[in-house]
Amino acid sequence: MHTRSTALALVTLLCCHAASAQAQDKAHHRDGSFQNNYIEFEPKGLAKLLQWKWQAMLSGFPQPSKQSTAQAAPDVDFIHANARAGTAMQPAVTWIGHATTLVQMGGLNLLIDPIFSERASPLDGLGPKRAQPPGLSLAQLPHIDAVLISHNHYDHLDSASVRALALQRAGSPLFIVPLGLKAWLADEGIGNAVELDWWQSHDVGAVEVVMTPVQHWSGRSLTDRMQTLWCGYALFAPDLHLYFSGDTGYSPDFIDTRERFKQRQGVDQGGGFDLALIAIGAYEPRWFMKDQHVNPAEAVQVHRDLRAKRSLGVHWGTFGLTDESLDEPPRALAEARRQAGMSENEFGVLPIGGTLRLPRRDVGATAASGSAGQVPQSRPAPLR
User: Fold this and answer.
1) Structural domains in the chain?
2) Secondary structure of the chain in HEC code, one letter for each residue
3) CB neighbourhood size of 237 (10 A)
4) d(Cα 30, Cα 33) in Å, to the nearest integer?
5) Between 3 and 213, the higher pLDDT residue
6) Could you say which of 169, 197, 288, 337 has the lowest number of CB atoms within 10 Å?
7) 306: closest CA among 346, 355, 357?
8) Are strands 33-34 and 29-30 parallel, antiparallel or unpaired?
9) Cα(243)–Cα(384) distance, integer angstroms
10) What whole-number distance in Å separates Cα of residue 306 and Cα of residue 38?
11) What is the distance between the alpha carbons of residues 212 and 25, in angstroms, rounded to a whole number?
């Protein structure tokens, strides 16, 4: 009897511990909504929004750009040859504009937060207007295997763009979205979707996609705020480890992410993330934006927290969303790098349409198994 009682007590203790751990993992789940890990975020209401816009108007913000965002003719031949290369693919990223980025890794073509529309807005003819065309048009894209969405704000989840991608030749890509957005996609007529929570993963071919926590919020109207999840992504393939921050304020989530994956990113395993795509724009005024968007100095700290080998600044130069001018983020990033003693090659930017080719994480293991085609390997290009 004593042995049986002890066994029951142990089972009860283990169950309680498991339930406690699960509750801790799901602490961001609230009754019908979601919350951040390190702050109780409450989206600012209409009064604060009007206060910000009134102050911006009186101060003349945003000021005109001193120079237009750099653009480059896309290397379409390379992008399409790389897309056909199978396991011989060279890891590469092409910045299309704002957060929209084409990632080629693990033999797949992945598209992050696609917006190809003229405006980041629910209203035709109103809202933030694109300052220059996308670096790649929808027609210039290779076949997209998967689309990764970080959250539902209009500059990251664009209805016209995802509907067009779902109609690509040879079938819809897989859409990977945070909790709550699969139903939204279904309403748009898109059924090929996977919905994930923070730290959950899904394999797409040779690429493992892990949804990671960041500090932000969601909402497409005044009535649905915080009702769907937001996220960053960690992507793992034999040839590349890549991180994408999504939209985020600065928080310990990036240290948590590094710690979460340290067992698979040791020195003998190739080290940390080969590339991090970190938002550097839409950060002024700080009293309004600090909890939701990092500024360039905080982005440098994110890079350090992750211990990424190198980073690219995204989420700038495309839509005028906040008080800083469109061309300010790279200048502020340069100053933050200088103060941190960091090189431009360690954390820089690309021109819109520019492609950064990256060395393979494990050249010996992947080059030997190349299949459909061959793409010349190259040294990583310097960041611009």
Assistant:
1) 71-120+129-361 (3.60.15.10)
2) CHHHHHHHHHHHHHHHHHHHHHHHHCCCEECCEECCCCCCCCCCCHHHHHHHHHHHHHHCCCCCCCCCCCECCCCHHHHHHHHCCHHHCCCEEEEEECCEEEEEECCEEEEECCCCCCECCCCCCCCCEECCCCCCCHHHCCCCCEEECCCCCCCCCCHHHHHHHHCCCCCCCEEEEECCHHHHHHHCCCCCEEEECCCCEEEECCEEEEEECCECCCCCCCCCCCCCCCCEEEEEECCEEEEECCCCECCCHHHHHHHHCHHHCCHHHCCCCCEEEEECCCCCCHHHHCCCCCCHHHHHHHHHHHCCCCEEEECCCCECCCCCCCCHHHHHHHHHHHHHCCCCCCEECCCECCEEECCCCCHHHHHCCCCCCCCCCCCCCCCC
3) 27
4) 5
5) 213
6) 169
7) 346
8) antiparallel
9) 20
10) 17
11) 12
Q: Which residue has the tokens 């390379």?
A: 78
For residue 188, what are the β-bridge partners? none
Locate 153 and state its tokens.
């704000």
CA distance 104 to 82: 8
pLDDT tens per residue across span 6-64: 444 443 333 444 333 444 568 999 999 999 999 999 999 889 999 999 999 999 999 99
